[in-house]
Amino acid sequence: MTRMTSSARPLLNRRLAEFGTTIFAEMSALALSTGAINLGQGFPDTDGPEEVREAAVRALRDGLGNQYPPGPGIPELRTAVAAHQQRRYGLSYDPDGEVLVTAGATEAIAASLLALVEPGDEVIAFEPYYDSYAACIAMAGGTRVPVTLRPHEDRFRLDLDELRDAVTDRTRLLLINTPHNPTGTVLTRAELAAIAELAVERDLLVVTDEVYEHLVFDDAEHVPLATFPGMRERTVTISSSGKTFSFTGWKVGWVTGTQELVTAVRTAKQYLTYVSAGPFQYAVAEALRLPDSYFDGFRADLRRKRDLLGDGLRAAGFEVYQPQGTYFITTDITPFGEKDAHRFCRALPERCGVVAIPNSVFYDDPAAGRSQVRFAFCKRDDVLHEAAVRLRRLAS
Q1: pTM of the predicted protein model
Q2: 3-state class (DSSP) for residue 167
Q3: Can you say whether the dihedral through the CA atoms of 84, 90, 95, 97 is positive or negative?
Q4: 268: pLDDT strictly greater than 60
Q5: CA 396 to chain centre
Q6: pLDDT score of 6 more than 60
Q7: For the chain, what is the radius of gyration of the CA atoms?
């Protein structure tokens, strides 16, 4: 017998009522159905270093991680994460209490917000923002308060006065993403110092999403917010292996922070996935110990791909905002006499055989990004060349 449900109450939790299928699933399905080149969802089309993949195979064969790993993550990976933070940024963390392994950065974000935010708390996030931010704030019962990054000259910039004005007595937490997805902006030392001063002054917690930490270009530099005075004790720093080592399907991320903060996040995390990616944790521990030449070469290769696709987009007629980091390029479609990015992206596979993402879905106010379209350049050179050729049809 089929159990009837009450028509007076929707099945979906009302906190999630505004969220449907993600734009990434929608546009990737469109790419499959049309055979278009998928420059929408941000995943590489080649695997990362062979020695890292072989480390995962070796772990599987040796029986490492085939059963439940420790809740906080295997000691080898926690030690490798702590060593990475010390070597790269001079940040010292105890691997036994100040490092937590998660199912990618997305779970780390969810667990952090569920742990630290209560109903009625305000969370400030830069928009356009990674779509899980809004959903996780909603699940925690918080209220999201957007501070908009706006185009200025050739990149998107933060208005520090707008950020200060957004803080109220109800503000609990700042959710910071740098290098920033989708705009490619990398916050400067001066901007980060101002954010740190504000957080200390108003006694705010901060969660930083730094998954693109190794993908910064030209003169930009990635500086963790936790390195600034007064910030280590109030900052949950999040990163992951997927973007740095091109194994996005492994879903291995991590959190670093004080023992008090990490314990709070772990309390929420243990009721989400509990544990995950056992054998892959051993492989990522080895990946984090790769020599600097790997990270330098990876960054140089992505910078070249950025320039390859960026030149193609300009030739096609897009206004291009040069990204300082990540592997995304944000463009504007107004030079084509169009203003609706969502409609533009739905039609693009038929017009050109290319899929992209409308940035409007990453804003609380869709009008703010109505004409912006994001392309991913973490693809093979031949794919980017072909995409550029197809997009030039727009110029005619």
Answers
A1: 0.94
A2: coil
A3: negative
A4: yes
A5: 35
A6: no
A7: 21
